[in-house]
Structure formats: C-alpha cells, structure tokens
C-alpha cells in the first residue's frame, strides 16, 4: 500500500518537525527491546539513517516502498537486516527495530487533536511500517540463508581433507555419510591435490563411513576412475567385515582396484609399491 501525495507530505512534516523526539524515543525503545546488545550510539546511528531515508522517500510524493524514490530506504533496511543477521540477532528482534516506529508515531500523533484525519494518517503510516518490517524480515532471511549455505560449504570442505602422507602419496580420510554433493567435493579436492603434488598414489580411507550402499560405492568408483585418468592409482582402505558383506550382497565389484582392511595395510601396500619402483630406478652396479 502506497501513501498518497497528501499523506506523504504530512509524514514528511511530522518526521521533520519532531525529528529529535522521534529519534530519541525510537532509540530508547530499541535499547530496551535489545537489552543492551548494541550500544546506544550504534542504535542512534541506525535510527537516524532510517529517519533520514524515510524523509527522502516521502518527499517524492506518493510514498511507495517499491518505488525508485525509496531506493535509499530499501538499502538502509537491507543493511540493517544483514548486520543484525551477522551479529546473531533473531528475525523478530530485527523486525521489532522497525515496528517500534509505530509506537513512536502514535505518541507524536496523540499530541495533535485526535480527529478522523489523524486516525487515517496513523492507519496509513502503520501500513507503511508493516511493509518496511516485512522487507526487513525478507532481507534478514536471505542473509541468514546465505550465511548457512557458506557455513555448510566450509564444513563440507573441512570434512573432506586431502592429506599428503609423503612424497608421491596422498590420503583422503572420509568420515560420515557420503552423498552426491560431498562425493563431488571429494573428487574435486583429490584431483586438484594430485595435480598440485604430482602424486602417483592416493589412499581413500572409508573407515569412518558408517555404511556403504550402491550409491556410496558408485561415488567411490567414480573418484577412482577420475584419479586414474589423471595417472594416479587409488587404494581403498577401511573395508570392515560388515561393509565387505554389504558390498558382496549388493553385487558391487571393485574390479582391479586395490582394497585393504585398514589404513595401515594400505600404507604398507603403497610402501611396497614405491619401494619396488625406487629399486627399479636405481642403476645396476657392474661387478
């Protein structure tokens, strides 16, 4: 709901004429609702920015939050929402920062003669504040979703480390469920590490994977095939008896891929392979 040109003009007059009273009372209400979690100076700055942006938007006439003239106000509301989301405030606490203006405007209007026009103005102003509150809430939710997505991505990367064991050997210790998204991260990180280290061997340890089904097995096989295309051999370790039985029951075949019961066994296997290669590279001594 947009304010008419006449209502916008009266709103501009009220906000300008009672600027000090409005900002002081607004700041006071916010300080009480947020219980000291933000300083008085910070709250006053935010209130003054909102107050100024509202006046600028109302001066254009026919105040509409979606209009081009309200661009500064939308930017201030969005910045307020993003800041509160990053600081750990709730959506309710963020929206209350805007809705508190209703109480302030009611107090200002009550100083005038209570007539039909005053009541109409308050209803119109209330609708405007409701729009501002909803816009703030939506901005807050978008920011929180973005933060959650970023944190989930960071956790995913942390949960799929690629460790360089020694020269030419890297290991991927997997812990937890291996779904499609995580399998893609595993493959990308492993392949990038193989390129960076020029390692010919990679150990994929699934000791920490609680269960292996057809989907998990396919993800592992795809990773092994991708590594082979990069010129590296993979050894799968952590094949516990229960997992081995499940793999057999599902009819999953690893073909010529080396599998070991534990990470220690896989390391010994790689040591033998690298030892043989090192011996082959040594020149024969003439007798």
Q: Could you characterize what this model shows?
A:
There is one protein chain. The chain is an alpha/beta fold. 67% of the residues lie in helices and 9% in strands. The protein contains ten helices and five strands, in the order H-H-H-H-H-H-E-E-H-E-H-E-H-E-H. It has a five-stranded mixed β-sheet with strand order 1-2-3-4-5, with helices on both faces. Helix 7 links the parallel strand 2 (169-175) and strand 3. The model has no long low-confidence stretch (mean pLDDT 81).
Labels describing this entry:
single chain; 287 residues; alpha/beta; 67% helix; rod-shaped
Strands, count: 5
Based on secondary structure, the structural category is alpha/beta
- Report how far the terminal alpha carbons are from each other: 99 Å
Mean pLDDT: 81
- SSE series: HHHHHHEEHEHEHEH
Our Rg estimate from Cα atoms comes to 32 Å
Beta-strand content bin: 5-15%
- Please count the helical segments: 10
């Amino acid at each position: 709901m947009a304010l008419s040109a006449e209502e916008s003009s009266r709103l501009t007059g009220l906000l300008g004429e009672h600027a000090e009273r409005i900002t002081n009372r607004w700041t006071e209400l916010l300080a009480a609702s947020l219980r000291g979690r933000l300083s008085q100076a910070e709250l006053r700055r935010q209130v003054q920015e909102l107050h100024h942006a509202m006046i600028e938007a109302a001066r254009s006439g026919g105040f509409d939050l979606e209009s081009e003239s309200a661009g500064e106000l939308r930017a201030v509301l969005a910045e307020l929402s993003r800041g509160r989301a990053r600081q750990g405030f709730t959506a309710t606490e963020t929206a209350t920062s805007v809705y508190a203006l209703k109480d302030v405007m009611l107090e200002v209007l009550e100083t005038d003669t209570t007539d039909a026009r005053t009541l109409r103005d308050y209803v119109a102003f209330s609708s405007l504040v409701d729009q501002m509150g909803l816009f703030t809430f939506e901005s807050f939710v978008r920011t929180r979703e973005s933060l959650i997505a970023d944190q989930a991505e960071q956790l995913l990367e942390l949960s799929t480390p690629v460790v360089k064991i020694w020269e030419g050997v890297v290991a991927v210790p997997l812990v937890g469920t291996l779904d499609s998204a995580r399998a893609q991260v595993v493959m990308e990180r492993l392949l990038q590490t193989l390129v960076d280290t020029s390692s010919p061997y990679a150990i994929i340890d699934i000791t920490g994977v609680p269960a292996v089904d057809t989907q998990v097995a396919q993800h592992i096989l795809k990773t092994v095939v991708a590594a082979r295309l990069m010129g590296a051999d993979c050894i799968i370790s952590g094949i516990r008896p229960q997992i081995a039985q499940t793999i057999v029951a599902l009819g999953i075949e690893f073909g010529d891929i080396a599998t070991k019961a534990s990470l220690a066994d896989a390391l010994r296997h790689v040591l033998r392979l690298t030892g043989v290669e090192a011996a082959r590279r040594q020149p024969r001594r003439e007798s």
